[in-house]
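Proteins fold reproducibly. Consider a sample protein:
=====
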Amino acid sequence: MLKTIVLAAGKGTRIAQEGIDLPKAMRTVLGKPLLGYVLDALPTGPEDTVIVVGYKKEYITAAFPSYAFAEQTEQLGTGHAVMCALPALEDYDGDVMICCGDMPLVKKETYAALAEAHRLSGAACTVLSGRTDEPLPFGRVLRDENGDFDRIVEDRDCTPEQKNIRELNAGIYVVDFKKLSSSLHELRTDNAQGEYYLTDLPLILKTRGEKVCVYARDMGNELIGVNTPAQLNQVEEILKQPH
């Protein structure tokens, strides 16, 4: 059993351009919102998907009326966005995929393969890591001496050695919902942004003695999220290419 939480509450300060006042996930590429590409690729349909909305939420709720929504009224980070979605999944007992509404290049087969890897592993949480040559400022997935998950280090906190790690955190996870719900309160805001980072969750679960796995995949340009006008143009050029 699988449900999905899609994080789409952000304004996208860096991408906000004169005269375009939309939530970031509603910026369009080839006439289709970024969020539309994500929803089309997910392994869950509208009845099993919750979209976390915030800034100018009416644009998203109007565009995707068959979906369930949760509202994040304050932008306090990805971990906080997931907290806002918990009431929409009350009493659910199964796995939940968490992904971003501004990553339109992630393929259907990537989401499906992550969900299957999680199911087969019996883990409480599975982290999707992507290998890519794209110069992206993503967190690095660190492994221990046995090659198992150790922790995620944000790009800005990486040592020079860690910067060389090419296994990037894709920001996409599958987690046992009950274990997710019971551990989110352990997230802290003692970081540079003063936000609740979802990237801390796998380590919290691991520290609790839960099994945390990494599903590693060559992802190339699938990992490109849209944060700037340049990335919006880059994604458009990629999507124009025949698949």
